[in-house]
Write a structure and sequence with these properties.
585 residues; 2 domains; Beta-galactosidase, Chain A, domain 5; alpha+beta; single chain; 4-stranded antiparallel sheet
């Protein structure tokens, strides 16, 4: 039967879970509304469709190009679609860019086709100014639908030529697009161009559970990546009080030379624009836009993010031309593929401070998956391997906890004796620990070592594409919460609940140390981990539940071992003559 402290911990755990869920629904509720709204829009489009869809070949139309709120009037443009083995690219001639990318191997919400840059209003490869206003007036070449030309009255001719991916057998090249932008002075006077920006298009959340912190604009210079998410544009406020500390921001802008690449990212997908190595970019900008133009009933909008990378100032004499070359990656956030592109483009994974742990875990999980052909099985096997490697440390910690348990009567006597003098009581307790060679925090050591592994998994599962749409038992997608039902709007995610239960089970069979403060800390661990895991990728809860079960088996095995001897530590006697301060004469 649980004691009073255990029941308090359980109640606090439930209260923390309910509080977190309330905050989650209030903060990220717009995404739930977006899911329903998009579904209704898609059903309406299907019912309204009365003509067959055009063929995948080049098709012309006069559909207006949608634009974010910060862009000027929408213009009609000719469009054409071009297919490759992995994606379909929709080009628009007015801005001379890629309006959307359809990924054949991935599905979006409601099992619909997954689009990148759909409805952002900023086609990939668009030229724009430092505020994000696009340069329009491009015309599509009749013979080559991925080539665009624009001629200005002053004689400036801009030509943009896209090279789409070919079947190369290399994953990093399946979504790699080449872009050459040529500036030619066709006039009779020199021209000095203040510098354009090449747009990376836009990224918006794919699933209702995707947190706004995954919708980011990233840029790289001198070995360092800088990242902002859509919340950067919000007005600054003091939490709980609500006092505004700064107004909302409309534009993110950074100047400087030597920028290698800029990217817009969602949780599992990205578009990266990389300058040629001998042509480093100058400056970046970013804005957020209203994704799909959808708002929920509370008026909270859904935001995507768009941005661009600068060409730098260009000076042209009459008849002179300059070409800026770029590589554009528009596809899934595959760590292995991105790392092969060079220039540390894998940093868009945003693994954080434990990135080395995340990278190792991702490599190990992928290696195991190639053998067992299941990511869930790979996570379970990887967890067992990690726990097996930590087995000696866990045994040592269990032994330390048992010695603390034997020392408990002496500690109780000291607490009773010095209950009116906390300082003296702590001094005597430390002496007692030292006399018997007991580390009061020895039982916490395995947990502390597990923390980097936990957050390594946390970061890795939040960005790596591998777990997306992977199934396991009742779990339809290991990259999403395993919601099995809703009760009064509250999602019932079974695996995190099982995880919390195994943590309480593990605490129940663990030796009780004599240190109440350590016990209180341990009682709050289920609250902390349940809060982190409840609305997160179910693969993380699968890892932690597996390691809990392994630890429980280990504890049952070690609890039957003989109790350690509790003996005072022998101190070596001092050598004769030690401590003398005199000198021989």
């Amino acid at each position: 039967m649980f004691d009073r402290t255990t029941w308090i911990a359980i109640i606090v755990s439930i209260a923390g879970l309910v509080g977190w869920q309330y905050y989650y629904n209030k903060t990220y509720g717009p995404y739930l509304a977006q899911q329903a709204s998009l579904k209704h829009q898609q059903e309406a489009k299907k019912q309204a469709a009365s003509t067959p869809s055009p063929s995948p070949a080049a098709v012309a139309s006069t559909t207006p190009v949608s634009s974010p709120t910060f862009v000027g009037p929408t213009l009609s443009s000719r469009k054409t679609t071009i297919d490759t083995s992995r994606a379909e690219y929709l080009f628009a001639n007015d801005t001379g860019g890629i309006e959307s990318v359809t990924l054949f191997l991935h599905l979006g919400a409601n099992e619909q086709s997954l689009f990148l840059n759909k409805d952002s209003g900023m086609p990939i490869g668009t030229l724009c100014d430092a505020s994000g206003t696009p340069v329009t007036g491009f015309t599509m070449d009749e013979g080559k639908h991925s080539r665009f030309t624009r001629t200005s009255p002053d004689g400036l001719v801009i030509t943009k030529s896209f090279t789409l991916p070919q079947m190369a057998g290399a994953p990093e090249k399946d979504y790699l697009i080449g872009l050459d932008v040529t500036f030619r002075n066709g006039g009779s006077a020199p021209l000095t161009l203040p510098g354009y920006f090449v747009a990376a298009g836009g990224e918006a959340p794919v699933h209702t559970q995707d947190l706004p912190t995954y919708t980011c604009f990233d840029w790289y210079r001198d070995g360092k990546m800088t990242s902002i998410d859509v919340n950067w544009f919000e007005a600054g406020k003091i939490p709980l009080i609500g006092i505004q500390t700064r107004p909302a921001r409309d534009l993110y802008s950074e100047n400087g030379i030597g920028i290698g690449w800029a990217a817009v990212t969602s949780q599992y997908f990205t578009t990266i624009v990389t300058s040629a190595k001998d042509q480093p970019a100058s400056g970046v900008w970013a804005r957020r836009y209203l994704a799909k133009g959808v708002e929920n009933t509370s008026g909270q909008p859904i935001y995507g993010i768009t941005g661009g990378i600068g060409t730098g100032t260009i000076t042209l004499t009459p008849g002179e031309s300059v070409t800026r070359r770029y590589e554009i990656f528009a596809g899934p956030k595959d760590f292995t593929a991105l790392s092969k592109l060079g220039n540390e483009q894998q940093k868009v994974m945003n693994f954080g401070m434990f990135h080395l742990v995340s990278e190792f875990l991702l490599w190990a999980m992928n290696s195991l998956q190639k053998v067992v052909h299941s990511y869930a099985a790979a996570i379970i096997i990887l967890t067992i391997l990690i726990k097996s490697a930590l087995w000696p440390l866990q045994n040592k910690a269990t032994s330390s906890m048992k010695r603390m348990q034997l020392l408990s009567p002496k500690m109780t006597e000291l607490r009773e004796k010095y209950k009116d003098d906390p300082t003296k009581m702590n001094e005597e307790l430390m002496k007692l620990y030292k006399q018997y060679g007991v580390n009061p925090f020895g039982g916490c050591l395995p947990m502390l070592i597990q923390i980097p592994i936990f957050f390594g998994f946390y970061s890795m599962l939040g960005s790596a594409i591998e777990l997306r749409n992977s199934h396991f038992l009742w779990i339809h997608d290991l990259s999403q919460p395993d919601t099995i039902a809703h009760i009064v709007g509250f999602p019932i995610n079974l695996l995190p609940i099982l995880m919390g239960g195994t943590m309480l089970w593990q605490m129940a069979v663990s030796p009780k140390s004599g240190d109440p403060s350590q016990q209180r800390i341990m009682y709050f661990m289920p609250v902390i981990f349940l809060t982190f895991c409840y609305n997160y990728a179910s693969g993380l809860a699968l890892y932690w539940t597996t390691q809990n079960l392994f630890s429980i088996v280990q504890l049952y095995w070690t609890r039957n071992q003989p109790l350690p001897n509790l003996e005072k530590v022998k101190t070596p006697p001092k050598a004769k003559g030690d401590g003398g301060s005199g000198r021989k004469r």
